[in-house]
Design goal:
Length: about 240
């Protein structure tokens, strides 16, 4: 599943079409795609893993789900869910979820929840974590209304960097460690973005898919943790379990 930084890369790639009018539209999406024809794109936005195509009085929301892909100025062999043709090029989306949001897009999103947004608010994340002391930190970090944009790779890397066991309970983790985790979620997301653009993301993974701990030279534990049952990679020697 693409994480927030990958959606930000998509936004940068399609920036060439901002302000342009859609000449042709097609695809097997269930939304009324003809509504988009001859409309001008006011802006492209992102909120976490949501990619937003904003028009004057409505917004097309695209969620890549697990296997969603896109192509800019080229096509895949399969039929796109949504194809947008402009005077100077095209965008194609495949196997994604597409919905329409009516009216002003700002009423649907709190931009301060997005770790890559200029309005990201770490204090708000702290307040949200304070309300869920009994949750495991591995679930809390993946909560898109606290850390919008953070996916499973970022979760693992942040917890490894902060020396925290993924099954630790939010309320039992020392306050300064919580502050560090919140800060790392945003910082690592920007590093992810930087490395991904240079096609060297994997090279920088310290825990994700790793067999042994780089710090301890001991085997990494692989386990589906938390309510969300997402894969965690961790070292029980240096990542402390707070319960
Ligand atoms: Zn270790």
């Amino acid at each position: 599943m693409p994480e927030g930084p990958s959606i930000l890369i998509l936004k940068e790639e399609v920036q060439q079409f901002a302000g342009q009018t859609i000449m042709e539209v097609s695809g097997n999406s269930s939304i009324d795609i003809h509504r988009l024809k001859a409309k001008k794109i006011v802006a492209f936005k992102t909120w976490g893993k949501h990619f937003l195509i904003c028009f004057e009085d409505f917004t097309v929301k695209i969620h890549m789900l697990m296997f969603g892909t896109y192509r800019v100025n080229e096509q895949k062999e399969t039929k796109p869910r949504l194809h947008l043709q402009f005077a100077t090029g095209e965008i194609n989306f495949y196997t994604c979820s597409i919905k329409i949001l009516e009216g002003d897009v700002n009423q649907y999103y709190d931009w301060s929840e997005d770790v890559l947004n200029e309005n990201w608010n770490p204090k708000k994340a702290k307040q949200s974590l304070d309300k869920i002391p009994d949750e495991m930190i591995c679930d809390a970090i993946l909560d898109q209304n606290i850390f919008s944009g953070v996916g499973n790779i970022i979760k693992n890397e942040v917890l490894y960097r902060c020396f925290i066991h993924p099954e630790s309970l939010v309320g039992k983790i020392p306050s300064e460690k919580i502050t560090e985790i919140i800060s790392e979620c945003s910082l690592y997301s920007f590093e992810f973005l930087y490395w991904k653009k240079k096609f060297e993301l994997k090279k920088h993974w310290l825990s994700y898919t790793k067999n042994s701990c780089l710090r301890c030279n001991l085997p990494m534990i692989r386990k589906y943790t938390g309510k969300k049952k997402r894969r965690s990679f961790f070292c029980t020697n240096c990542q402390q379990l707070h319960i």
